[in-house]
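Model the whole thing, not chain by chain.
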Amino acid sequence: MTDTSQSAADERLKAEPFFSRLMKRPELGAIAGVILVIIFFSITADSTMFSLSGVINFMTPASQLGILAIGAALLMIGGEFDLSIGSMVAFAGLFFGVCVVTWQLPLIVAIPMTLIFAVSVGAVSGNLVIRSGLPSFIVTLAFLFILRGLSLVGLKAATGGSTQLRGVREAVEGDWLAPFFSGDAFTGLFASLAKMGLIENFKNGTPKVPGIPVEILWFIAIALTATYVLLRLPFGNWIFASGGDRNAASNSGVPVNKVKVSLFMLTACCAALVAIITVIDAGSTDARRGFQKEFEAIIAAVVGGCLLTGGYGSAIGAFFGAIIFGMVVIGLTYTDFDQDWFQVFLGGMLLIAVLFNNAIRKRVTGER
Amino acid sequence: MSEDTTFHHGNAPETAPIVQMKNIEKHFGNIIALAGVSFDVRPGECHCLLGDNGAGKSTFIKTMSGVHKPTKGEILFEGTPMDFSNPRDAMEAGIATVFQDLAMIPLMSVTRNFFMGREPTKGNGLARRFDIETANEVCVSEMRKMGINLRGPDQAVGTLSGGERQTVAIARAVYFGAKVLILDEPTSALGVRQTSNVLATIDRVRKQGIGVVFISHNVRHALAVGDRFTVLNRGKTLGTARRGEISPEELQDLMAGGQEMAQLEGSLGGTV
């Protein structure tokens, strides 16, 4: 160990420049994307977009997508897909709505029940994928339709014919747990900051931004936790290994099936969390909740550097991928562009990200 | 042993074998893959298992490493009968197998591959985490012992050459306390230079007192490093020979089943 410097020097190795080391990070593409999008909107958009209220404006949809995207990213690193995330949001939303409105349960009961319910559905689809050996694409595509259909049927049964279940806001009002899942945090801090004139005020002295919406805090907390798990826990190593090569992983003693099923359960759990947050926020739940979110979540994960083949990617990348998404969907309203450019942008971004990821993968593995 | 007489059986063993396989039979339905194979490996020796494609080498090592259960026969590990129900059991007992696909993931770093499934941790309870610093240190120093200087512990396995990957797999098995190391055709896909590196690694491992089972169908590679040679043909052992007791030609003939090879060799001018 004492001759490290001497023996580490191999005459055939060039010193690796900082830039090329940076190129090997999976989240680089997403960070570069964020910078590009910021430059684009600082030129084209109204300057209020990057004021505090503008940032909160685009961070809210980014967070709702991002919670899903981080789950999807971990699952993709683990080598599987889940196309049923969006339908799961609707289905978990229905279950949560029924718990709160029809059964009048307090949140302390309703929230764990919803999460457990979603996680068990995730366990079913995960086990189906693992045990049948079918591609997760097909199995979860089936669940996309099954869960969406069940949400419709269930909503009609619960409401007597309507596809919207109202009355959630009234039902959770005053519940001590509600502030953790809806509304704004740090309102006191923001009010005093406004008083001191440090943030924008309305004319009557109340702050324009009353606080940080709780979903943003959930989003950040989940991104940090997921990154810690991936990079600093044995389980994270197992996720990379399961996605990289399941045979190699299980020959080395990694419980591949358990890892994969638990990742399916995790994505379902993320979907349920988004359902709870958005249902309380909207005060109602409907069958279109989470529509096409599965694709957006996968796009955010891919933009964040996840390979479609698994074994590579990062949660922080998905975090930035979701922020790009939020900036574009909201940012276009600050510009003179037609908002429908959004879809074109989304597709283009996906294409560029995939090409970019492919190049990165070749760099990492030294393929020529 | 079989009735074949061209082999001289070894003298009484100087040291007790670590693993002893007695008359192993393995049937898959009506197919008899192994029809009575006996084999043993002692500490600090390299025992080569030779055989042509389809001879039953893979089935045999899978039986040894706990993937398959023998239909008949006995496995003794350090003198006591063992009944491995899965590869994990065999691994824990100290039988490590380096399969042809190496169980390596190209996109992951050398360290993460090295400790895959057996990550060192520090801290307790919720703070229990992958001790990446220790893992990196151990990985770099173990690789240096095997004669490979990594660019860094975070270098992806995909950037290593085939021989280096083989060495990582061997170093990993040795580090995790293998008493017997089974190498499944470690040199079959390698160039000349890389092959000699792997053979040198086998020699290093043997000197540490580990019993090496070297599976190959290349007689030259086997003779370069082996102490004893066992030939497997059509699910049976044709016998075991010690180093110096058998010529490459004899081994080659035995692997191919004798006659046909003699005819072939005539037309190829002894080049195979």
